[in-house]
Each structure stands twice: as C-alpha cells, then as structure tokens.
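S.,

Sequence below, as promised.
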Amino acid sequence: MSSADPSVLIRNLKEADSPVGLLQATRALATACHPEAAVHLVEVLGFNNPGAAVAAVEGLVALGTAAVEPLLTNIDGYNYGARAWAVRALSGIGDPRGLAVLEEALAEDIGPSVRRAAARGLGQLRLESLPQEERSAIWQRCLTGLLAGAADPEWVVRYAVVVSLEQLLPHPLAAEQHVRGLAQLEGLAAPASEDTLVVRLRARLALDNLSG
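The prediction came back faster than expected:
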C-alpha cells in the first residue's frame, strides 16, 4: 500500500482533463492500493480509455475482496465496455460473490475476450474459507457453466474452458460430475469434435496432468 494520501489521488483522478492525465492518475491511485480507491477505479472502467481501464483492473485485482462489492454494486449494465472490464477484474480477484456475473458473462456476453475471462474466472474462484457444502454447490455451478462454454464458437474461449476444467476437476466433485468433466476434455482433445489444434493439444495436456 502506498503512503500517498488517497484523497489527493482521488482528487487528481477526478480533475484529470486529458486521456494521458487520466491514465497517469489512474495508475497512481491503483498503485496506492487503498480500499477507498475501489469505487473510483470502478468508475474508470466506464470511461473510453483502455489504458486507464487496464490500470484500474490491475488496481482492483490488487485490492482483492475489498473491490468486490464496489464492482458488483456499480457494474453498468448499459455500458458494455465497463461491464467487460468488470468481468476481467472479478475473474482476477476470484471471490465467489462474483460467480453469477461470471456465469452470465460466459453464457451470454457478445465479446469473446470477455467470455474467455469469465471462463478463466470460473476455474480460479477462491473458496477455501467456505463450508464444504457451499464449496460443492459452487464447484457444480462452475462445472455446468464450463461444460456449456466448451461449445463456444471462439477457440480462445474453449481454450480457457480447458484450463479451468483442469483446475476444477481435482476438487472433490461427485463421481458423475467428474466423469462429465473428463468426457468434455476428451471431446475437446479429439479431431472429430474440435478443429483447433491448440485447443486439442491443451485438452490432451489437461487429461495427462489429471491422470498423472
């Protein structure tokens, strides 16, 4: 955490009057890693400044759980760009409170990069502090979302699904769910059902790692 006064950094962000100024102010606020910054970094996601948005996402991920409520509360459903960046931030944080947003993004978002981020997020939720029963329910929801995402028309999304299935399947899923996950990886590793070589190779690697 930076020793800089967050109120000064927030004021600098609000007073930025150029794209470069906004980028610099966002980076400074993100680097401060102060909880007060979260809601203001979320606001930056809605600006038409990709560089500043990247910096804001990095800052939100660094804040971790402190950024989840500001993200969920302030996601702009009418601003596609802001929502896309928010999905990336929630995926990077890995808090289970973002599960519903990730599920919806993988199933419905129009942007392949957003669906890819959502697929990766479903494989890296941090559930250690939850009761076993709740963890099991979340793992099942993640598996259901990933199995559906395996049919995505974009290979980058299917690749992300493979990576997340490899992360998810070692968890104590029900036997039927485990079999379904392995069967999906087998399908993604087969030329008859997957036409992108890099996806097939990654799926085969996942299967080898899971059987090792």
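Residues 3 and 189 are 50 Å apart (CA to CA).

Coffee later?
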